[in-house]
């Protein structure tokens, strides 16, 4: 019995020692791998350290040769056109790339933009742009031979400075202008990458047809300093869809004006009834204009739709004048002339309405 107990105790002791040895080996291996990872991380961090002698205030080409900066834009959404505040709202990416031979040894690294020379372009349009991913994206990626690339996302509104003279049949080319005002004019040379500048096919905007997008480089001069800078202009073609205004406003306004033409079909001897129809039509037109006022942009000049409404009201007033003239002819025992005037007016007033509208639309 004692021999059996002694044998069992020895077996348990050996098993416990084996477990301790196995765990010790596992812990040793874990510590070894952790140490290797820390050494690799330290080596990588050391490899991506920008040399302290690098002058971030000087471009790669120095002051003798301008640095070529390739720029492109990717518009992923065009959300709104604010006619009243003269703004457009969009969501887009900015991509820039240039070559800095001083960073050739940092291939594959990502470093903050403050650690290297960085072309800080500025938007000339008044804006409410928000920078997305400010912390994670406020870096540049370094490729082979010192190729530096930068990508940043912007979302928000920028001033569009568009006129609404042809509203609601207007089309515009919205221009978003950028310039580098922190560098001397001969230090940077922008290259517009038109092939990689694009706009998404599906946009979250209603009432507009967005066309092509283009990127160009031009020269601008600051008036006070007389310094020349290169300006990047991102242009977006857009055309308003006028169907809403045609169906909801112009068609209904045509019916209101046509109501005044009933005057010409009432016998001129009943000129009191004719004038009553004209006055009712005028009041209806005024109420209609007041109702649609919130659909019209509050600008300080007349648009095409404003001129169409004014011409329609003038014709309604002229129909009342025609009823007064016809009534005067009846009172002067010239009823035949009054009937002839009504007959001519039946054709003249519709022609005047639509020909006037055609001239207004085509003249602007």
State the main characteristics.
364 residues, alpha+beta, 8-stranded mixed beta sheet, rod-shaped, disordered N terminus
Please summarize what this structure is.
This protein has 364 residues and is an alpha+beta fold.
Structure report:
By secondary structure, the chain is of the alpha+beta class. 40% of the residues lie in helices and 27% in strands. Strand 11 and strand 12 form a beta hairpin.
Largest sheet: 8 strands, mixed
H/E topology pattern: HEEEEEHEEEEEEEHHHH
Helices, by number, come to 6
Q: Beta fraction of the residues? A: 25-35%
Helix fraction by DSSP (H/I, runs of at least 4): 40-55%
Q: Could you give the topology of this structure?
A:
Elements: H1 2-47, E1 67-82, E2 87-99, E3 110-112, E4 122-123, E5 130-132, H2 134-137, E6 139-142, E7 147-159, E8 171-179, E9 188-192, E10 198-199, E11 208-221, E12 228-240, H3 243-260, H4 271-292, H5 304-331, H6 335-363
Parallel strand pairs: 1-9, 1-10
Antiparallel strand pairs: 1-2, 2-7, 3-6, 4-8, 5-7, 6-7, 8-12, 11-12
């Amino acid at each position: 019995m004692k021999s059996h107990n002694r044998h069992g105790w020895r077996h348990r002791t050996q098993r416990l020692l084996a477990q301790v040895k196995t765990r010790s080996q596992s812990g040793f291996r874990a510590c070894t791998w952790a140490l290797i990872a820390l050494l690799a991380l330290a080596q990588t961090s050391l490899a991506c350290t920008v040399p302290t002698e690098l002058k971030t205030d000087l471009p790669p080409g120095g002051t003798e040769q301008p640095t070529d900066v390739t720029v492109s834009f990717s518009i992923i959404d065009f959300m709104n056109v604010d006619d009243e505040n003269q703004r457009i709202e969009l969501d887009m990416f900015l991509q820039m790339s240039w070559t800095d031979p001083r960073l050739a040894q940092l291939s594959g690294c990502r470093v903050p933009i403050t650690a290297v020379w960085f072309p800080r372009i500025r938007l000339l349009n008044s804006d409410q742009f928000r920078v997305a991913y400010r912390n994670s994206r406020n870096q540049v990626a370094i490729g082979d031979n010192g190729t530096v690339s930068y990508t940043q996302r912007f979302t928000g509104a920028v001033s569009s400075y568009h006129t609404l003279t042809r509203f609601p049949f207007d089309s515009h080319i919205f221009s978003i202008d950028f310039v580098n005002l922190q560098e001397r004019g001969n230090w940077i040379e922008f290259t517009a990458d038109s092939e990689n500048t694009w706009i998404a096919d599906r946009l979250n905007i209603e009432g507009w047809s967005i066309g092509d997008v283009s990127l160009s480089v031009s020269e601008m001069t600051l008036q006070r300093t007389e310094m020349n800078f290169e300006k990047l202009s991102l242009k977006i073609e857009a055309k308003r869809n006028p169907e809403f205004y045609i169906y909801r406003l112009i068609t209904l306004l045509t019916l209101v004006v046509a109501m005044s033409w009933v005057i010409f079909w009432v016998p001129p001897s009943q000129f009191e009834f004719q004038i009553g129809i004209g006055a009712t039509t005028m009041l209806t037109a005024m109420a209609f204009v007041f109702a649609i006022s919130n659909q019209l942009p509050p600008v300080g000049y007349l648009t095409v739709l404003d001129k169409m409404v004014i011409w329609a009201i003038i014709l309604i007033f002229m129909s009342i004048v025609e009823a007064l003239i016809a009534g005067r002819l009846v009172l002067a025992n010239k009823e035949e002339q009054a009937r002839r005037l009504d007959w001519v007016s039946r054709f003249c007033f519709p022609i005047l309405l639509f020909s006037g509208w055609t001239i207004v639309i085509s003249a602007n």
